[in-house]
Amino acid sequence: MWVTLALTVGGGYFLAPYINQEVQRETLRREFLVRSLDALSGDTISLITAVNKQVAGDTSPQTVADTQAQIVELQYKLVQLNISSPARRGAAIEVQRALARLQTAILDRPTGNRDAVRAELESFSTKSFELYDTIIRDTGLL
Are 139 and 96 in contact (CB under 8 A)? Predict the structure, then answer.
């Protein structure tokens, strides 16, 4: 009986800090992913809106510059997500590739056509949705 009591108290004394540390680490990771998901979602919506303005004919230098700035910011956030979450790296890289193709289509638009930009925007949107779905499922939010 004393041995059981000693093992219970000793095990609790030594294991409790480790378990607490793991719970805190998981909580911080989940909070970071939720904040990242929220930021990516907002930035994606803003980018889609800006690209749609360009497709509709608003090719003013300010609109083009704003769109490029949004693309760069979104690329940076995807890099952060890659670093912080290796398990989601594949999905995030696919979004980065789709974003790069979208950027190329936008820059080529004066000599290209709107359909190419629309197609790349649709591809980017699809890949983004897949990444969000992956994050939501991995964090247990769904």
Answer: no
117 contacts 109 by C-beta, under 8 angstroms: yes
- Residues 2-19: b if buried by 16+ CB within 10 A, e if exposed: eeeeeeeeeeeeeeeeee
Q: Tell me: the pLDDT tens digits for 117-140?
A: 889 999 999 999 888 888 788 777
Residue 81's contacts (CB-CB under 8 Å, 6 or more residues apart) are 36, 40, 88, 92
Tokens 């890949």, residue?
127
Domains (range + CATH), the chain = 32-139 (1.20.1440.210)
Torsion of CA 122, 126, 132, 135, to 10 degrees: -150
